[in-house]
UniProtKB/TrEMBL annotation:
InterPro entries: DSBA-like_thioredoxin_dom, Thioredoxin-like_sf
Domain DSBA-like thioredoxin as annotated: residue spans: 7-184
Protein name: DsbA family protein
Gene3D superfamilies tied to this protein: Glutaredoxin
Pfam families for the chain: DSBA
Taxonomic source organism: Janthinobacterium kumbetense
Length: 218
């Protein structure tokens, strides 16, 4: 079966910009979408928000909004990005995404919700109580989600990140986001999404036009 592999990080602004493309791909009949979180801000790469960081990311965020149409909320721009006590850590939201997938098959829904929580609502998506609340918004039981989160935390999340990075290196990806199409034969092709940002219907049409019972190829 044809599979679109999506390599991302929940704290990657361009991945947030690509979120409508992910949703468009999910709606293509006969195409499986597999997600791979790369852990951009984990371990020693975690980053505390500073005025310098705010100054660095805002021009990029404006560019992402311009190209993708994805909104960046005031609670993020003038709230979270001014909170120098906040830590940006990809690992907790990745664990939450894995937990949501294992519990309810809602990993991609959780990704979309944590992205919106960060970039629109200005929430601290590295905090477990925030992640539990988001899971509950998606219809999951809070206690069951916390149990799944505990199971996926630590070594399981690290294995997932390592496998994601290995796939990114295998296909020669240039970072996050990277979309890789497996046509069903095991052949992997990287899709340049630059021409699709802000045009999810265009990507959906292209994927839908090449995906059928025999497989697909771009």
């Amino acid at each position: 079966m044809p599979t679109l592999h999506y390599i991302f990080d929940p704290l990657c602004g361009w991945c947030y910009g690509a979120a409508p493309l992910v949703e468009a791909a999910r709606a293509v009949p006969g195409l499986t979408l597999a997600f791979h979180a790369g852990g951009m801000m984990t371990g020693s790469n975690r980053r505390q928000i500073t005025p310098a960081w705010r100054g660095y990311v805002l021009p990029h965020d404006r560019r992402i909004e311009q190209l993708s149409g994805q909104p960046f909320g005031d609670a993020y721009i003038n709230g979270l990005l001014n909170d120098t006590t906040a830590m940006m850590d990809s690992e907790p939201p990745i664990t939450a995404i894995l937990a949501a997938e294992s519990l309810a098959g809602k990993g991609l829904d959780m990704l979309q919700r944590v992205q919106r929580a960060h970039y629109v609502d200005g929430l601290r998506i590295a905090d477990l109580p925030v992640l539990v609340a988001l899971a509950q918004e998606l219809g999951m039981d809070g206690a069951a989600f916390q149990a799944a989160y505990a199971q996926q935390a630590g070594a399981a999340t690290q294995r997932h990140i390592e496998a994601s990075r290995a796939l990114l290196a295998q296909v020669g990806g240039q970072g996050f986001p990277t979309f890789v199409l497996d046509d069903g034969s095991g052949k992997l092709s990287v899709i340049d999404i630059g021409g699709f940002l802000g045009q999810p219907a265009k990507l959906q049409a292209q994927l839908g036009g090449v995906c059928d019972a025999q497989g697909c190829a771009l």
